[in-house]
Design a protein that fits this description.
Elements (H helix, E strand, L loop, with lengths): L5 E4 L2 E7 L5 H4 L2 E5 L5 H29 L1 H8 L9 H7 L1 H5 L6 H9 L3 H12 L2 H7 L4 H4 L2 H5 L5 H11 L17 E5 L3 H12 L3 E5 L8 H4 L8 H12 L4 E3 L7 H5 L5 E4 L5 E2 L14 E3 H9 L9 E5 L3 H12 L4 E5 L11 H9 L4 E2 L2 E9 L2 E14 L5 E5 L5 E4 L2 E4 L3 E2 L33 E3 L2 H4 L4 H20 L10 E6 L1 E3 L2 E2 L18 H4 L13 H8 L7 E5 L9 H5 L5 E4 L4 H7 L11 E3 L8 E5 L8 H5 L5 E9 L6
Bound molecules: flavin-adenine dinucleotide and iron/sulfur cluster (2 copies).
The site of one iron/sulfur cluster has 14 residues, from α5 and α6.
């Protein structure tokens, strides 16, 4: 399906419209708006109106520029040279890193894996995403659909699996982990022991903050421990990375549920971080629910009881309701607990299910049918015992505003026999333990009002992050929130302005080693994405603890790294060295270099050798050259092969690695 202007964030579709460079200082790099839907078809229908609204906003800004300021009229006519001092310019070209919520320097760690430096690759990850072994198995991978390789060779680099190669093959890293800083006298309370709180603890312990972590369960890890099954995330990997953080001297209070924020505020903490997640699984109140209660389970609670080994069996016939990742974990766990006949049913059409592609594939690969367009109507109970469920068959119909309705097809109801039902239809937050008179404002959906930049609530001492801030997301978002909240808590404790955020660390280093030699591998592999091997199902399906994905071995990992296009190696251009011989233009395999007359962005994009149609990707504009032309390069299609720099007789082109590191509290 055509996804122009659309991108996915927090499992929700957004519209993004690129802003002409002349207005970037005024409007930012692009204008974005959430479509508040998970459904691609609906997003498709809704986007047109939003795109035209955002475009008219750009038009108004353009007209204001022209009428308010005469000088800016000139700017409209001629594109200014690209401002390379803006750290976001080159960052945006590294598509995978830009899309990763924690901005992990992906191509840099991929190069380290190619060199066999697994420990270095692991540590590069650990700085940004805190849990490389865990995420190398479970990450939601927003970087992969963004990967430039999808624009040149269809399938993205297997970025997530490569993270796992680094984690699986690293050496002992205990000496490389930073030690806790000297006690700075400040005490921070962290409520909940999930990835968000653990990230905050790691960042603040380095600065010498005393971190006290309250967790209602007997161990830390949050949903990573209680809900992600061991066949996807082995306990050993989880424990290792959680303990790496706790061992930095976090004071833990396990089996301690915070039941009053007011009481906690009365204790001597300088700031409080709420990382309590979205712990309430949704229920389904339809006919027969109460009578069938003994055999109906809320998915996330059921997975938790498996994790703590309270549940060890399930009936032979199981129905799982829901189309998200929880449903996929429930159905696959049921098989391993002895169910012989597991069926997933989902209200929406298959393509609109929320579960990731790979989760659906894995479930179906284990022989579990997914019945879409089935709306649950009744739990069927006989002699006080659940015997099955009744479903109505529907089809999705969209109105002119893109609103989806599920219309009954009129077919006979579908009856599915079952012994147990698992309900996996969503999660909610639960803040009944936060009193409403202590200065935390609550808004829509009874969620706290949290500042999107600083993660501070309306109570200056209290910060939120992870699923507790804006609802269920995933681990990498929880880590990204944790880093930002730690920066804010540190600034708050120092009495600094929280809105004044630290700049990222950046460097730009030439990769030249000789006339035709580069320190990176620039010969692009034409191989297709490698398929990760799986454990023998005869063994894996019998045991919850047998990991299904075996990961790439070193050789496969190496081959996969060669598919990366090194998007962080930038083509840097020096006007002062250019003699306008056009040698680079001739050699570029993608025709992305141009020497042309300057003009408006619209005209320039049209006049390139190959028109630059992808407005989300920038064009590099040089200062004016002696012939009064400018050099324009379309960043969208550059392969970073370096042929331009090899061919250039004066060295006007150079290949330079751009390293971008998001600021952390301790840097
Ligand atoms: C079945 C399932 C599978 C998932 N699979 C993936 C996946 O493969 N990849 C991925 O990226 N994400 C996955 N997720 C989502 C991911 O686990 C969460 O987004 C992430 O763990 C959120 O982190 P968090 O730190 O905000 O909260 P959580 O991980 O939810 O941790 C919150 C912690 O707070 C504790 N707590 C709550 N209230 C209190 C209280 N009052 N006092 C003390 N402690 C309290 C809870 O016990 C819990 O340990 C999955 C979620 C589910 C439900
Ligand atoms: S090709 Fe490599 S550097 Fe480029 S976006 Fe994909 S993973 Fe990132
Ligand atoms: S690096 Fe390669 S693809 Fe990019 S501009 Fe230079 S020659 Fe063209």
């Amino acid at each position: 399906m055509d996804t122009k202007y659309l991108f996915k964030r927090h499992n929700t579709w957004w519209v993004k419209v690129a802003v002409p460079r002349t207005l970037k200082s005024k409007l930012g790099y692009d204008l974005r708006e959430s479509l508040s839907t998970h459904d691609i078809n609906q997003a498709h229908l809704l986007r047109e109106e939003v795109v035209s609204r955002l475009k008219s906003k750009i038009k108004v800004a353009k007209n204001n520029n022209l009428s308010n300021d005469k000088l800016s009229a000139d700017v409209q006519e001629y594109l200014p040279a690209t401002d390379l001092s803006d750290p976001q310019y080159y960052h945006k070209i590294v598509d995978c890193q830009y899309a990763c919520p924690a901005h992990t320097p992906v191509p840099e760690y991929i190069r380290q894996i190619a060199l066999g430096n697994y420990t270095d690759a692991y540590m590069i990850n650990w700085e940004s995403n805190v849990f490389p072994g865990i995420l190398g198995r479970t990450c939601d991978r927003p970087c992969e659909p963004a990967c430039r390789r999808t624009r040149t060779h269809e399938k993205p680099v297997a970025i997530c699996r490569l993270k796992r190669v680094a984690a699986d093959n690293r050496d002992d890293i205990s000496n490389l982990l930073p030690k806790a800083g000297e006690n700075n006298g400040k005490r921070i309370a962290l409520i909940g022991g999930g990835p968000a709180s653990l990230t905050v603890a790691r960042d603040l312990r380095i600065l010498g903050y005393e971190c006290v972590l309250f967790e209602k369960d007997p161990q830390a890890g949050g949903l990573m421990r209680t809900n992600i099954p061991s066949f996807r995330l082995p306990e050993k990997v989880l424990n290792e990375e959680v303990e790496q953080i706790l061992d930095m001297g976090v004071s833990v209070r396990f089996n301690t549920e915070i039941s009053s924020m007011k009481a906690l505020l009365n204790e001597d903490f300088d700031a409080i971080f709420v990382g309590t997640g979205a712990p309430k699984g949704r229920d389904l109140s339809i006919e027969g629910r109460i009578e069938a209660d003994a055999n109906v389970h809320i998915g996330i609670d059921w997975l938790t009881s498996i994790a703590f080994e309270h549940t060890k069996s399930i009936g032979k016939k199981v129905i799982v309701l829901g189309g998200g990742n929880t449903a996929m974990d429930c159905c696959r766990s049921s098989l391993r607990l002895g169910a012989e006949n597991v069926t997933v049913t989902v209200r929406s059409p298959f393509e609109q299910m929320k579960a990731s592609e790979w989760e659906k594939e894995d479930a179906m690969g284990e022989g579990i049918p997914i019945l879409d367009n089935h709306v649950p109507k009744k739990f069927l109970v006989e002699n006080c015992k659940l015997i099955g469920m009744e479903f109505e068959k529907v089809k999705a119909v969209f109105d002119s505003n893109g609103k989806r309705s599920l219309i009954p097809t009129g077919e006979d109801p579908v009856i599915i026999e079952c012994d147990d039902v698992l309900i996996a239809i969503g999660q909610d937050n639960a803040f009944n333990w936060i009193e409403r008179d202590i200065g935390i404002e609550f808004g829509e959906w009874d969620m706290p009002n949290v500042d999107k930049t600083t993660f501070q609530s309306s109570h200056e001492k209290i910060f939120f992050g992870g699923d507790a801030a804006w609802g269920p997301e995933n681990i990498i978002w929880a880590a990204a929130h944790g880093h930002q909240a730690a920066i804010s808590i540190d600034k708050f404790c120092r009495g600094e302005d929280l809105q004044d955020r630290p700049e990222p660390g950046t460097s730009l280093i030439s990769q030249k080693m000789g006339v035709h030699e580069w320190s990176y591998h620039n010969d692009i592999s034409q191989a297709e994405r490698f398929i990760v091997p799986h454990a023998d199902p005869a063994i894996a399906l019998k045991d919850l603890k047998v990991e299904v994905e075996l990961g790439f071995d070193k050789q496969m990992g190496f081959e996969e790294t060669q598919r990366c296009l090194n998007c962080d190696v930038q083509t840097a251009f020096s006007e002062s060295l250019c003699i306008e011989c056009d040698a680079c233009v001739d050699i570029c395999p993608t025709d992305c270099i141009n020497f042309i007359a300057n003009g408006t962005e619209e005209d320039v994009r049209k006049n390139l050798r190959v028109p630059a149609v992808n407005l989300d990707q920038d064009i590099l504009v040089s200062k004016e050259l002696p012939t009064a032309r400018v050099m324009i390069k379309d960043e969208d299609v550059c392969l970073h092969c370096g042929l331009c720099a090899e061919r250039c007789p004066t060295g006007a082109w150079d290949m330079q690695t751009y390293l971008y590191e998001e600021a952390k509290a301790y840097q």
